[in-house]
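Forum: Protein Structure Q&A
Topic: Joint prediction for protein chains with partners

I've read a bunch of threads here and the consensus seems to be that you should model interacting components together rather than docking separate models afterwards. I'd like to see that in practice. Below is the full input, 572 residues plus whatever partners are listed. Could one of the regulars post the assembled result?
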Amino acid sequence: MNLELGDLEELYQDVILDHSRRPRNFGELSDAAVRVHGDNPACGDEIHLAVKFDGNRGLEEIKFTGHGCAISQASASLMTTKLKGKSRDEVEEMLGAFHDLVTSENNDAPKKLGDLRAMRGVRKFPQRVKCAMLPWRAVEQALRQTEGEATVSTEEPEFA
Amino acid sequence: MHKVATSRVDWSALREDFPILQERVNGHPLIYFDSAATSQKPRAVLDVVRNYYEHENANVHRGLHALSARATEHYEKSRQRVADFIGAASADEIVFTRGTTESINLVAQAWGGKFLRAGDVILLTEMEHHSNLVPWQLLAGRIGARLRFVPVRDDGTLELEKLSSLLTAEVKIFAFTHVSNSLGTINPVAELCQKARSVGAMTLVDAAQSIGHMPLNVQELGCDFLAFSGHKMCAPTGVGVLYGGLDVLDSVPPWHGGGEMITSVTLEKSTFKKPPHRFEAGTPNIAGAIGLAAAIDYLEGIGRAEIFKHDVDLASYALQGMADVTGLHVLGPSRDRGGVISFVMGAAHPHDLTTFADQYGLALRGGHHCNQPLMRRFGVPGTSRASFYLYSTREEIDRMVDILDKAVRFFK
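Posted by a regular:
Agreed with the consensus. Here's the joint model:
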């Protein structure tokens, strides 16, 4: 196997291809407290995240719908699997750890990230970081509010 | 039976003219199939630009010294070269701009700002690049004009039978692309211009994708304005052209104000030069204009008719090869198309495919190609796009098809 194929196979690990083809937690959440629409206008990826909080404002339930590249869809599937049932603090900690995983130069991949560590190949493809971060930007926004809908974008807010 | 004449051009030898084609990307020879975004540059153009900076560089139209005279002469000769290239009656009909986008904005804001009123209609098509849509949206929003669109059929051609109901007396300008940057569709420009004229509407042709790829003559097309960029036709980035007939340009008020475009200035007011200088405020892209003339020399040395045949041959060869790739669907017409092929693959999203192809040295474009409404029209978030030019080869297409097959197996 040559080096380039190595990079590709590291980016598209089996677990990522599996989650992109058969996303987990994919579907509507009728009694959601917060819905966030995540949008990557540069490539058309969309993630519609719906969450329900528990009594301590932890993530009791989290589901998503949407469409996009394998990286964005697998990231959403892996993320929702990981974050379901987590407290606010844990979600925020995971968000920081995941961002480091896909952007940092070093090869650290903290154990607590579990299957999310499969996304580490993204760090060699800077153009794809936005794809991986899209669902996380949505969950970050969801934590900021107690109810209602919001939209987040991988691009800066626009003048309209 | 129609016989295809053998080309007199040695297409593979011509690749030597483009230094960048020697690049290796991710360990593979570069296959550059993104020429619809920007073309590569031949050494002849690079040499002329370098020579200009080494031997002629000075500001134009203002210095009384030798270098300024040289630069001015070369700059104005380039304008004449462009005029001859597109069949304009005079060099004064050629305005140098930054590119197609700026050319269209000039027309929308300066011409449109003067001649359009609330309620007037601007007719566009559903296949316009954002550069021939957004400037009109801005104008329409400002003055209360209305936008109207010629629809696109499923096969990627314009629904011309709708034209008579759309092209009414309220239409003041019909602005449309010559060749679609996403679909490769070649529009019948002369027919569209003639129909527009019959209701008294002006026409603007976006020639960004056609200018370097096929013979083009503004008299034969019968357009009022024509806009194009240098960088898609072997010239440097940052230079482009707005063509307009002398009378038309003379009716347009100044757009950008500054040096070069004035005759006299007092603290209170100014008077302005005649076109084209009225529209060239500030120091222009002198090296860019000179490079554009060099690119024209280069393309004419090969012949635009030959280049067009080469494009069409590559496109039909690619369509044949791509037809055998599992789950691959091509958008756009099956014939009468330029060397631009947009496609989607069931197995791989355009961005995943672009990343995959890049690892094999194949430069494809993935995304909406500045055609978001058109992507919505076809119900896709984006496509992958392969676009060819004079330096593209059948061997490269074979390698692309092989890489697409690999991608099917990889992502399935």
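Chain A has one domain: 3-150.
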